[in-house]
Amino acid sequence: MLRPLLAALLLATVSLPAAAQASQAGRYFEDALKRFEAKDLDGATIQLKNALQQDRNHLPAQLLMGKVALANSDPQRAEVALGEALRLGANRNEVVVPLAQAMLQLGRHQLMLEDPRTQPTGLSDANQGRLLLVRAAAHTDLGEDALAISSIEKARALLGPTVEGWLAEAGLRMRQRQYDQAERAVERALALAPNDLDALHQKAALAHVQGQFDTALALYERVLKLAPQQLEARVARAGLLLDLQRFEGLQTEVNALQQAFPKDPRVAYLRAQMADQRGERAESLAALRSVTELVDPVPFDVIRFRPQVLMLNGLAHFALGELAKAKPYLEGLHRQNPRSPTVKLQAQILFEEGQVENGIVLLEQYLRLQPQDSQALALLASGHTAQGRHAKAISLMEEALRTRENDELRGVLGLSLLRTGQARQAQGVLEATVKRNPRQVQAGISLAMLYLRTQQYAQAEKLVQGLLGPRSLRPTHLHLLGMARAGKGDAKGASEAFTEALKLDPSLVPVQISLARLEAQQGQLQPALQRLRNLHERDNKNVDVMLELAGIQLRANNASEAERWLERAVAAAPQKEWRPDVALVELRLQRGLRDEALTAANALMSKAPEELAALVVLAKVQMARQELATARSVLVRAARRAGFDANALAEIGGLQLQVGDAEGARYSLEKALQTQPGHVLAQGLQASALLRLGRLPEAQRLAEKVLAAAPKAATSHLLMADLAMAERQPDRALVHLRRAHEVQPSTATAIRLLDLLSSKDAAAATRFAEDWLRRQPSDAHMLRALASLHARRQQFEAARPVFESLLRLRPQDVAAHNDLANVLLKLGKLDAAAQTAERARRLAPQSVEVIDTQAWIHFHRNETEQALTLLRDARLRAPDNSEIRYHLAAVLAKRGQKAEARQELDAALQAPGSLESAKEAQALRAALN
């Protein structure tokens, strides 16, 4: 009896320091927050460092550190901290604007404009507007004036009239020397805030550049009356007085500036100019040296958009006789775009190094001299294809083929068409190429693989056997033959082909993988796993082997082991290999690990920001996290990248329907049907899109066409059920749902039927689900649906055992653990609820729903410190979640922090329809009043 007790005591002893650290981190954070609000930036920084020393992953501390660092003119620390906050799961609305400001201060303008993290899509209107103003500043510095003014106008449309919006335009107009328009913009800003320091300073600067020196001086004086220590106004006034040769009192002012701002190069340059006026050459040179010592260590990127600093350092180096050092600063001052590279390497090497654009330039120069070089032209087309410019590659090939017939060029054209998803056109070109010249082996193999991809297995088998000829069969051809036979269901013939290929070359890993896959399909899991493990031992970097191991582990219901193999594959994969990343995201979504899936998706996007597969899985993650606006934007990009790939467009169209973008889905599916008019899935989805757009007659015609083409497909009847529901005929919809379930009984059809039944007769729905589960006791989806049905009906005692059955089947299901924890909380089983929530948290430590549940259980156990720490974290991850904000308000109110509690309650009650606890929140708000 003592041993279990001893183990429990040891576990408690081990866990106490971590809990104590978390608690201490929370206390440091609360103190830092108070200091920040009191503008004690240094004190806040110290306390935040203390908090992060206790808990590096303390999300609120990382976010506040970013804001404090930005306010304290430390953009580098701000960028790091804000990036960490995003990594830890902070909602973009909380982070994006300060992150963009930090990147702008660091001179990372183009990176900020292109970075997926700092895009306006998916933000609230207010944050979109603020971010657009930051982006306008970046466009202005880059000389992209049209984009800058467009961003400013969009920001004003979102924010309404603001000082910041008008001043952004004033700065741009000044740069364009459109002084009248700049003045009008400044006056609009001052009409909103007559004593705004930035607006007054802008007006002074405008007078200054137009030669209205007395007006400018008066305005600088007005700014300094309101804010005597305003650096910009003091430096500008001193510079103007120097230009006007008004030296009285100027030396005193420059000395004071030097004492107050010793690290500002402008002040050092003013000192040099004053010394030069007095004829003190040595002192002037020393001051100029101070300028260079201050600016030179700063990375050029940080200052390349600060013309004043570039000019000062260029002039300082020039005056010191350091012409080579002056040159980059003076060039940077006048360059509109400093990012134009010039390289003299051969195209092939450039392609290998990833510098494809430089290789394209080199090839274009060469082809102007040697236009008949087919190989160079084919290489140029492959370069454009590598850059995603498939249309350009196709255009090059078609243009060349108009002047001469060339099988190599025609083969490249077929491959280019294939890469754009134009499978039908590609098939025609490749078939013609192979027919004209059977020796075009690459075209023949590409055609065989196209047949396999489009499930034309008989054609693939015939091509490999006949066109390439049995005598010329090499191991790779036998591999294709085996895959064709496997696709036809000829397992014996496939095995013979794979075995024959391995006799010719036992080292062929792809053939070994295909053989393992065939074994697994026949239920021989252990031989398949052993074959793959042997391959992995020989080459532990082979991504294909690890992907197949993951697939077979999934087939064996070992999701954790499958995930480990995928993580290894991601780590081993080369730069442009993202299949493991996609598979890892998909698996984590299947397991309900939404935050972990987002981490994997973001890592993939950093490697392949415009890759179709990356965009699609990112959208799926955002959908799982209910970030539907962001998902819609990503799917639009995916549809553009899909070209005319009918299958890809059908998938994207289906996802667009799920996120509520019916018009986007209609457009994607229309493109799919232009390429492949008989694509049944695309037709069905298009009917659904038309249905949602209210175009019922068109939807009806298309749905009937789908039903006629596939009368025994469940999807056809599901579509008819949707039409019936749109026409408010639930009984007719029920008939179609029952028919769908009859022709193709599946979990999907059963759950659709359950959903409609539950709205008409909850008891009948329950009986239907229980009957299905008697026959399919391992159907996790139906268990979840039944448990949720009980929970919605407040039948928590009935819901509990169903959730427990689901967890016995899927012990790593985060959502099921979380739902069960909430059910136990409703039943008043606080200890059991806490234990269940802790299990969910161990599985998904960054899940906002899990964090909220755990915090709410702490609150009901009167553990308000732990609840506050967790809810501050959850609130930053999901600021639009009204339930979390209500929970945070309840905790703050209980701790006596009533002002902040009122703010959170007001935010929660702004969207009462989405607040399950609206009555409780309103009662709390009344009590706080």
Automatic annotation (TrEMBL):
Keywords: Signal, TPR repeat. PROSITE patterns: TPR. Residues 1-20 form the signal peptide. TPR repeats lie at residues 163-196, 197-230, 475-508, 646-679, 780-813, 814-847. The keyword Signal applies. InterPro entries: PEP-CTERM_TPR_PrsT (IPR014266), TPR-like_helical_dom_sf (IPR011990), TPR_rpt (IPR019734). SUPFAM superfamilies: TPR-like. SMART domains: TPR. PANTHER family: CELL DIVISION CYCLE 16,23,27, CELL DIVISION CYCLE PROTEIN 27 HOMOLOG. This is PEP-CTERM system TPR-repeat protein PrsT. It comes from Inhella proteolytica.
